[in-house]
Design a protein that fits this description.
Keywords: DNA damage, DNA repair, Hydrolase. This protein has 338 residues and is α/β, with parallel strands linked by helices. Helices cover 32% and strands 7% of the residues. The protein has a domain of 205 residues: Uracil-DNA Glycosylase, subunit E (3-Layer(aba) Sandwich).
């Protein structure tokens, strides 16, 4: 067939060949070529010489004798190294991924009124909500320490878990109650929780709580049950008639105020220390021949929980020392009276 673009006959395609392309045999490692091989190589149509066998390192071909069972081959080392790298990568990725810890069991948590992460601990406080009484029904309530003619009746919020398990007031080692009693002068020596029932005879001190049931912390109590404990507390005060009621914590006094005044206490109405005479607790009105009683004076102290960090330690000691000075003076006066 003639082409309109070319003069004469159409050129025929050339036969396919490997001319002008790379010859791979030229790049292979061969033994030094002999004269006959060089001659053959010079001819483009001569067949390419077969590659000579590769040399091997004589050290690798040296017999090593019997193979020990403990011998590790190169392939095995490579496999172990690869698996180690995979394990390290998996471990690093696991460490970088945040893990959600399971919740603690109720008995493993710290006592809210006796717990303290300590100055060296950075553990975050666990946030909890209301817990019904059935949650800790297996823990017994704390026994009240009451006696007539007490100098001070301490009123706590409620027993914490460790306090309930121990059966003694403020039993958690991080709680500052016993230390503050001693540093303020309320007790002449540092007492332990196991001595709580000896306090009336030793120092004229007693202890009770506005809520009797144990819980992990104060947030597991409702305002309703705290308010319900106010009338019960008033009856206890009337029964033993202490000179002073020490409220151990702001939230307890807020409940007492809410029940008495029908509203929450305002910020400018709250104060630590001695309260006005109109706030005395356990007042008995002399009706039908009954001897009246003006009630116990109220002193609002700081919470002794290690988790209570709204005030510095020096501020807490200053507030407690005010009560301690009064206690020391009253003991001297009682001693002189006989």
């Amino acid at each position: 067939m003639e082409s309109p673009f070319f003069d004469g006959a159409e050129p025929q395609p050339q036969k396919a060949s490997f001319r002008g392309r790379l010859h791979l045999q030229d790049f292979m490692f061969n033994q030094p070529a002999t004269a006959s091989q060089n001659t053959a190589k010079a001819s483009p149509h001569s067949p390419s010489p077969s590659p000579s066998p590769l040399r091997r390192n004589p050290r690798r071909t040296t017999p090593l004798g019997p193979v020990s069972p403990a011998r590790v081959t190169k392939k095995r080392c490579t496999a172990v190294t690869a698996s180690s790298k995979l394990a390290t990568t998996a471990r690093d990725s696991t460490a970088s991924t945040p893990q959600q810890k399971p919740p603690l069991a109720p008995d493993a948590a710290a006592d809210h009124s006796n717990s303290d992460p300590g100055p060296k601990s950075k553990r975050k406080r666990q946030n909890t909500g209301y817990a019904p009484p059935s949650t800790y029904a297996h823990l017994a309530p704390l026994i009240d320490i009451l006696a007539p003619n007490l100098l001070i009746l301490f009123v706590g919020l409620n027993p914490g878990l460790q306090t309930a398990r121990a059966g003694h007031a403020y039993a958690h080692p991080s709680n500052l109650f016993w230390k503050l009693l001693f540093s303020s002068g309320i007790t002449s020596r540092l007492c332990s929780p196991t001595q709580d029932r000896d306090l009336p005879a030793l120092y004229g001190l007693g202890n009770t709580n506005i809520v009797s049931r144990p819980s992990r912390n104060g947030s597991e109590l409702s305002k309703a049950e705290m308010d319900a404990g106010v009338d019960v507390l008033e009856e206890k005060v009337r029964g033993c008639r202490p000179e002073t009621v020490c409220i151990v914590g702001k939230s307890i006094w807020e409940s007492v105020w809410r029940v008495r005044h029908g509203r929450g206490i305002k910020k400018d109405e709250f104060k630590y220390g001695w309260q006005d005479g109109g706030e005395n607790m356990g007042v008995v009105n002399g009706v039908d021949g009954e001897v009246g009683w003006a009630g116990a004076k109220v002193f609002v102290a700081t919470s002794t929980s290690g988790l209570a960090a709204s005030l510095r330690p020096a501020e807490k000691e200053k507030i407690w020392r005010e009560l301690g000075k009064w206690c020391e003076r009253r003991r001297v006066e009682r001693g002189k009276a006989g």
